[in-house]
Amino acid sequence: MSFLMFFVPGSLLATQLFACAIATPFRGPGVSGGRITGVADPDQAVVLSVTHARVDRSQRAEFDRHSRRIAGGLAEQPGLLGYSVRIEFFGDQLWTMTVWRSDADRENFVSSQRHRDGMAAGRPAVKSMTFARVTLPASRLPLSWSEAEALLAAEGETYPGDAN
After folding, report:
1. At what angle are helices 113-122 and 60-72 packed, to 10 degrees?
2. Strand, helix or coil at 89?
3. From CA 42, how far away is CA 53, in angstroms rounded?
4. Distance between CA atoms of 32 and 42, rounded to whole angstroms?
5. Mean per-residue pLDDT of the chain
6. pLDDT class for 59, splitting at 50, 70, 90?
7. Considering only CA atoms, which of 77, 72, 91, 76 is closest in space to residue 24?
């Protein structure tokens, strides 16, 4: 039997596949074995930043292109410990999780030319963007994606995008 035989528009399977999200492994210059190891003390406070974007699917390809460019330079960013990106394949959502040595390091990345250019170019596709930033002991990270979503729900600030 072919997979395509089961992909019937309006079916439960089609709905589940549409909303299927996949995440990259948590990785980065301060990560080993999926854990934060780039700090001297596991209880050292580090900065966790989580984002969630909803995008206009008609502009998704352009948005994804700019997002990949931003993510492509993350590992070289001073102060970055680790990161993961999660996307819906056929949907309209994207999440990021980054861990930084300090808020100044995170802010330097946000204000970097690569990030500013990518955000400006991708902004027309954004319907909404939610951000959360907290300081936690390195030993508590990375969060699971369900924990990251709970953090966004509890602590996040949502802004309308240009694609409304």
Report:
1. 170
2. coil
3. 31
4. 13
5. 86
6. confident
7. 72
Question: Could you tell me how many residues make up the chain?
Answer: 164
Q: Tell me, what DSSP letter sits at residue 25?
A: P
Structural tokens at position 149: 């979503």
Identity of residue 132: A
123 and 84 in contact (C-beta within 8 Å)? no
Question: Which residues are within 8 A (CB) of 146 and not within 5 positions of it... i.e. 6 or more apart?
Answer: none
- Residue range 6-23: average pLDDT? 54
pLDDT tier at 161, thresholds 50, 70, 90: confident
Instruction: Name, in order, each residue with C-beta under 8 angstroms of 110's C-beta and a sequence gap of 6 or more.
Output: none
User: For the chain, how are helix, strand and coil distributed in percent, rounded to 5?
Assistant: 40, 30, 30
How many angstroms separate the CA atoms of 99 and 135, rounded?
9
- CB 99 within 8 Å of CB 81: yes
Residue 59's identity, in one-letter code, is Q
Q: What's phi and psi for 86, nearest 5 deg?
A: -130, 135
CB 31 within 8 Å of CB 81: yes
The DSSP letter of residue 27 is B
Q: Quick check: bond before 142 cis, omega within 30?
A: yes
Token duo for residue 32: 């080993």
